[in-house]
Structures are given as C-alpha cells and as structure tokens.
User: Which sequence fits this backbone?
C-alpha cells in the first residue's frame, strides 16, 4: 500500500516535470521567426510621452515621436529640423523661423505655424514648471505669420535660444488634435501624436511598447519597420535576454553593469561600442558646511583622489579621466585650466596648513579636538556611484580624512542636493546641449547641488551676476570672457571634483548595421539601424 | 385549536452571534481599523513632505510659498484626526486619491499590476503544496532513506539560495542553455513557470521539512496506532489520521509567511521583468508617491488578514475543537 502511495506521488512529480516545459513550446516558436523588426530594452516604462512634460516619460521615447524646430549636431552645431531656416534680429530679441512645408503629424494634421504656436502657448502657460530652462523664461510670446512663418519674441536677448530649442523636452510638437479637451497639456494628452520617424503602435504599461515606422515621415525613413521596447528592470536579465537573441541592442549608461559589458565585448561575438564623452561625473564639494568650507581642504581633496585608478578599476577604461568640470569639448570651456594633479604629499601639506593635524598613531586628522569627518552622499541604487564613493573613501583615508558614506534612496539624495546637507555629493553635469549655458544658469537656483556647494564662496554673488550677464550677451568675445571668468573661479575655488567623462555603451548583434552614436546623450540611434 | 409550532432558541444548533466564522469576521473590524490608522500615520513618519514631493514631481521649485500653497491644496494644514477621517471616508469608497507621479487614480494604477502578482503568487502557492507536501510525506514515511537525505539537501539549498540568484540560474539553464523558455516574452502560460518555481522553492523546502517533522510526530500518536489496530487501509491511516493532523503547523506557517511570498514577488518580478505590484510599490516608495504606498500597504494588510482568516477557518476544519472550543466551557 505504501508502495502504491509513493508511486502515485512520484507519478505526479514526473508528470509535472514533463508537462511544465511542454507548456513552453508555443512561446519559443514566435521568437525564432525572422521579421525586419528590432527589439530594444529599457529599464523603465516609457511613460505617458507627453512632449511638454518630464518624468516618468523617458526621453529617448519622446525623441522617437516628437521633433524640435532645430536639431543639435555634434560640437554644438544647429541644424534645420521642422524649421528650414531662421533669422535672429540684430538686437537678439526676435527669432523668425521658416517652417518646413508638407510636414504632417502622424494623425494627418498638417504641421503649420498655427500648430507650432499652439504648442509654444501650452509650454508658456506652464512657465513655472520649466523654470530651470532659461529659454522659457526669456520667451515673451510666439506668433504665427501665415502658414510657414513663426516669430519668437524674447524679453531679453538670449544667445543659447536655438541650442535649447533642440532639447528633447519641453519644446517639441504635439498634434493639436491630441491636446486634452479640458485645460492644458500639463494635465495630460489624448495620445502621443508627433511628426517624428516613429509612431507608438502598441503600449502595455511596464511590459512593452511597440513603435512602428511613420510611413508619412518627411525625412529619411528608418530602415527598420518596427521597434519593440521591452521593459526589463534588471541589468543581468537584459544581458541574458541579449545573449539569448531576444533583444538586438543594449544601449545607454548603466543599463548593464560594466562587468557584463566587458564580458560581452571580450567574447568577440558581438559589436560593442563606447561613445565619445557625454557629461561629467563629478562630486560637488560644499563650501558652506563644516571642514569643506575651507578652500585648502577642498584643494586637498582634489589632490588626493586617484582618478586613473577609478577609471581603470571601475570603468575598465570605457571612460576618460576628467580634470575640469566641463570637458574641453564643451563650447567656451576650452580655456586651458590647470588640472589638480594626484599628489598625496601636496594634499597632506595643504591639510597641515589648514590646521588639520595628524595626531601620532591616529589615522584621522584633528583640529581643536574635532576629527576631520566628511559626509559623501550618493544614490544607494546607483552601483557605479557606490563603487566610486568607496574608492574616494579609501583615497581620502590615506591623507587622514574620514569619509562617511551616505548611500540613501534617490529622493533623500536629491533632498540633500537642494538643502545642502552634505560635504561631498554626486552631481553629474547634464551633457550636450545643456552645457555650459543651462548648467551654469541652474547654478543660481537653490534646488541644485551646485547652488548649495557654491553658497559659501565669498564671490558667489559675483558669479551669479556674471552668469546672468553671459546669457544675455549677444557678442562672442565678451561671452567667452565671462565664461572664462566663471569657470576659472569655480575651478580655482575647487568646488567640483570631476571624476570622469561618462559615456554611453552599446552592444549589438553582428547583423545590425548603420550604428552611430547620437549627439545628445538621451537619444537612442534606432532610426539609423538596419538589420540583415 | 391548532397550535403553531414555535421554534425555540435551543432548537438552533448555535446562535448566529456565537458562530465561529461570524465571530472571526467581527474581530476583523478593529484589526482593519488599526491597519488604516497605521497606514495613515506611516506617511506622517516619512522623511519628505508630501507637498514637496508633489512639487518635485511636477518640476516646480519648492519655495516655501509654493509648499504652503500645496499643503493647503492637499489638505495637509488641517488637524490630523480630520485628515484621517477624510482619508478613511474616501478609502471606504475605494478612493485612494491620485498618484503624485502620474496623476491617475491610485486604485486604477494599482489594479493594473494586481493580476500579475496574483497569478504569480497563486502559481507559487500551488507549486509549494504540489511539491512540498508530497516531499514531506514521503520523507516522513521513508525516514532516513536516500529520499529523505535528498529532500533534506533540497531544503537546505532552497533556504540558503537567494531568490534573485536562483532566478538567474533557472533562467540561464532553462532559457539560455536549453532554450525551453524565453527570457522576455510574456503572454503565454509558460512565462509563469520559472518565476513560480523561483518563488516557490524556498517555502516548499521549508514546508516539506516542517511536514516531515509533524508527520513523524503524528505517526507516533495513539490514534494512528488505534486506526492501524482497527485494520484500516494504510493509505487511509496516513491521509485521514496522520496527515490531517500533521497539516496544522504547515497551514499556520503558511498564513504567517504569506507576506514573505508577496515580498519575494518583488525580486522575482524584477528578475523576470514581470509588471507586478511589488515592483510598482518599490518604485512608488522610491518616488515617495504616498497615495500609492498607502494603497499598497492597505491592500497587502487586508490580504494578509484575509489569508489568516482562511487559515483559521481551515484550522477549525482540521481540528473541530477550535471551532467549538467556546461552547464546551
């Protein structure tokens, strides 16, 4: 009897083992079929894709659907997009755009000056939300002249106006038919309808989004017919899905670990690329709090961090060491600033001068009985920042500074950025086309780490005044001079510890061709790819 | 004269108010009320001001005036008890407010994710019982045999292995090496298999060991000896006498560890890219999307309470003494 019972149980177990996998067969068949489509993956849901709003919409997806008046090319060059040409008045206060003819939104609505004006009006109605961006503040009004002429009146001259029009948000164009019936686009849109090369065809929140080629696109149409964006939150799962041929392309920064990147690259079975430098991974040093209020301490920190070791051990040389807050490729930033060299002895000498003495037999320096302890704050979810933070902790320990690591959740980290409760905090720059103008402009607003970090500088008011001035200059030479002053002061005051210039990485299967990196960090080059 | 039949109280077996199930459900009311208070107060303890969060999400600079205005709009300037009653009144009508991030009604957002998590936990529960129970029974019946040792090994591995790692190992072997499943596709039954196994493995291992122990104890009891002495079929003795009594601790532990199952789902959902409630909740916590967090906490607490109610009812089925305990006194 016992035997029978055991047999029955075993039979159930065996049946389970046989039946379960056979359920899977139908699922695997669809994946092996070859159609001219591409599968991409992203860690977060693409969001509601409102062109005039921010998170949780993902910028790369907004960029697939919506287009700007003018586009940004490598090195800061402005290219025509929805506007064919433009003209800036001599006083810099009126920009007149000639719009491209024959452009349609994907719902068939023509894109004309009235539609463009309607979009601008929506954005301007909401000025407060875009107040980090100087352009929106500077615009007085936008007017349509006939079908093709759009006039943008500025309150004051604003030289980076065209550059900021290239941004993925907030000024891109939604079909007026997709505006909500009540109120403004700030409260939501009916559907994501733009003029861009892709159309959102299917969307399952947090699972996947399917983009189809816009067959009526005015520009050169994508070679691929359809792109499926699968939402895969976990980087290791993404790698496995990639190796299993379920996704064609991995792209971005932090989408997979650099260990995985190295492994995929070294396997030789795939194409792996590293983009040119995009933005700066940097740490802001608070000049208004504790020991870091002292210039010599800030300078000592600059000299004690071994960036080359970080770049090779953490980034496997996929990134370059950063010596200045803005890379020399950033407009107006190539001004020959003298890098702080990695020099432990000099760091120690500076700390001695500042009165932080190392008691015999103790690792941590003291002044008036107080230990030299600094808080380094970072987002605990960011594994790369965590690794850098640990490296910095070890480096500073070597010169007698005790670093307390505060790895908190993202919100707490961003709270600290605005309230200034940090000595050191991770504060990356925004990359082109925000640099340098939008970045320096934001230094005047208390909601950023930049503001908090610079708060203790004796010349902070002077810096802010020059920032205000540089954005209004209409001539090249004084503008360069003002940038030189601002960036030199910030560099000399050592309020930023640049670590490296970050990059996007891309890994793809060999049957993909036509890959090239995009000029903006948040664009994904899906439109140029083709698959054999 | 005809006299009509008058039913008397003692003709009913038990008065409704004395009924076990009724009493248990009645006891839920204070528990649920307690949950609502804790959930509400939880938000008061969170470090960021909800008004500041709304402003941040909307990208509006959080100036003191803007915060004050937003506090008034959200009703945060009213006394706490009023805020609570207002909130409770809405919650009772299943209105958890609007998400700070998406601006959509919270319940609608949450319901989008509920099916995934429910299917996942249901599949896992099924697997736990389908694997854990037979294994526990057999291990007890064939104590100290090879099978017992193998099931012990299975239990140790199951308990020791973190579920995210187990998930990757399963995915690596079955999806990547063998190609039986796909890593990403969803929409077919097959997609639930690996996640359910990942989620079920550790609890199944625990329950198998637990059942083995209580089976052994139960097999040594006099009622089993008596049943055997009566010459009952061995199968009947094991299923009706030994197993029924041995199941009690397993059911208890299941009720208590149901929450573990839900929290385990978070990791499994992330590894297998399932759009589930756990992942959404974690995302909302990180975003400080308080209304969503409140709704999630309430839902899981209620679910937990309901599962435990079922556990208690099951209990009274297995052991009638519990059901009638009160009347015997």
Assistant:
């Amino acid at each position: 009897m016992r035997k029978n019972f055991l047999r029955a149980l075993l039979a159930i177990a065996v049946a389970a083992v046989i039946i379960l996998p056979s359920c899977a067969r139908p699922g695997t068949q669809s994946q092996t079929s070859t159609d001219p489509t591409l599968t991409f993956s992203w860690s977060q849901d693409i969001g509601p894709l409102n062109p005039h709003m921010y998170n949780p919409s993902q910028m790369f997806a907004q960029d697939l659907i919506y287009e700007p008046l003018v586009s940004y090319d490598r090195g800061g060059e402005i290219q025509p997009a929805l506007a064919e040409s433009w003209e800036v008045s001599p006083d810099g206060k009126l920009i007149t755009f000639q719009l491209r003819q024959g452009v349609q939104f994907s719902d068939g609505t023509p894109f004309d000056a009235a539609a463009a004006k309607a979009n601008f009006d929506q954005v301007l109605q909401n000025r407060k939300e875009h107040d980090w961006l100087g352009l929106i503040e500077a615009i007085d009004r936008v007017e349509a002249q006939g079908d093709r002429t759009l006039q943008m009146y500025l309150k004051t001259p604003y030289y980076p106006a065209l550059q900021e029009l290239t941004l993925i948000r907030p000024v891109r164009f939604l079909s007026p038919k997709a505006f909500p019936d009540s109120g403004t686009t700030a409260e939501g849109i009916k559907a994501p309808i733009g003029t861009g090369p892709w159309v959102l065809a299917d969307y399952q929140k947090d699972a996947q989004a399917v983009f189809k080629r816009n067959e009526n696109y005015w520009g050169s149409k994508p070679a691929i017919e359809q792109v499926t964006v699968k939402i895969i939150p976990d980087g290791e799962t993404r790698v496995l899905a990639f190796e299993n041929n379920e996704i064609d392309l991995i792209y971005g920064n932090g989408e997979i670990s650099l260990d995985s990147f190295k492994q995929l690259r070294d396997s030789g079975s795939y194409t792996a690329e590293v983009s040119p430098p995009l933005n700066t991974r940097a740490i802001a040093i608070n000049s208004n709090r504790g020991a870091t209020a002292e210039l010599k301490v800030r300078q000592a920190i600059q000299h004690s961090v071994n960036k080359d070791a970080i770049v090779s051990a953490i980034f496997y040389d996929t990134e370059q060491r950063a010596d200045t807050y803005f890379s020399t490729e950033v407009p107006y930033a190539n001004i020959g600033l003298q890098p702080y060299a990695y020099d432990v002895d000099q760091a120690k000498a500076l700390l001695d001068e500042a009165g932080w003495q190392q008691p015999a037999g103790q690792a941590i320096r003291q002044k008036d009985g107080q230990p030299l302890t600094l808080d380094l704050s970072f987002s605990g979810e960011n594994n790369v920042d965590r690794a850098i933070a640990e490296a910095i902790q070890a480096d500073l320990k070597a010169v007698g500074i005790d670093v307390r690591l505060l790895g908190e959740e993202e919100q707490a980290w961003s709270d600290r950025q605005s309230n200034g409760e940090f000595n050191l905090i991770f504060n990356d720059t925004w990359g082109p086309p925000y640099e340098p103008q939008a970045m320096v402009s934001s230094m005047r607003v208390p909601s950023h780490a930049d503001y908090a970090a610079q708060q203790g500088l004796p010349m902070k008011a002077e810096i802010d005044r020059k920032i205000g001035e540089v954005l209004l200059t209409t001539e090249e030479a004084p503008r360069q001079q003002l940038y030189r002053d601002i960036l030199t002061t910030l560099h000399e005051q050592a309020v930023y510890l640049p670590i490296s210039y970050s990059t996007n990485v891309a890994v793809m299967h060999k049957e993909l061709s036509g890959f090239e990196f995009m000029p903006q960090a948040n664009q994904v080059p899906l439109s140029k790819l083709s698959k054999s | 004269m005809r006299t009509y039949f008058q039913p008397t109280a003692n003709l009913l077996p038990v008065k409704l108010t004395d009924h076990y199930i009724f009493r248990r459900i009645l006891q839920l009311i204070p528990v649920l009320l307690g949950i609502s208070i804790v959930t509400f107060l939880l938000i008061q303890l969170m470090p960021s001001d909800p008004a500041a969060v709304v402003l941040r999400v909307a990208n509006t600079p959080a100036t003191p005036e803007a915060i004050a205005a937003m506090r008034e709009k959200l009703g945060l300037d009213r006394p706490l008890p009023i805020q609570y009653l207002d909130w409770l009144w809405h919650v009772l009508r299943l209105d958890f407010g609007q998400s700070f991030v998406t601006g959509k009604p919270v319940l609608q957002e949450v319901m989008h994710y509920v099916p995934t998590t429910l299917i996942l936990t249901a599949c896992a529960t099924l697997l736990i019982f389908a694997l854990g129970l037979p294994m526990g029974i057999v291990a007890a019946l064939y104590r100290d045999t090879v099978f017992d040792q193998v099931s012990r090994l299975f239990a140790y591995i199951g308990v020791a292995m973190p579920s995210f790692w187990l998930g990757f190992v399963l995915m690596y072997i079955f999806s990547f090496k063998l190609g039986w499943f796909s890593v990403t596709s969803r929409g077919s039954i097959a997609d639930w298999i690996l996640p359910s196994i990942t989620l079920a493995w550790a609890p199944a291992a625990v329950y198998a060991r637990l059942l083995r122990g209580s089976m052994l104890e139960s097999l040594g009891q006099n009622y089993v000896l008596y049943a055997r002495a009566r010459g009952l079929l061995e199968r009947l003795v094991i299923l009706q006498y030994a197993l029924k009594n041995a199941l009690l601790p397993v059911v208890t532990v299941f009720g208590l560890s149901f929450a573990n199952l839900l929290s385990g789902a978070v990791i499994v959902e992330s590894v297998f890219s399932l759009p589930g409630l756990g992942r959404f909740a974690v995302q909302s916590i990180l975003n400080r999307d308080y209304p969503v967090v409140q709704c999630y906490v309430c839902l899981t607490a209620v679910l937990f309470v309901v599962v435990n109610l079922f556990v208690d009812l099951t209990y009274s089925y297995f052991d009638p003494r519990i059901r009638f305990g009160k009347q015997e006194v």
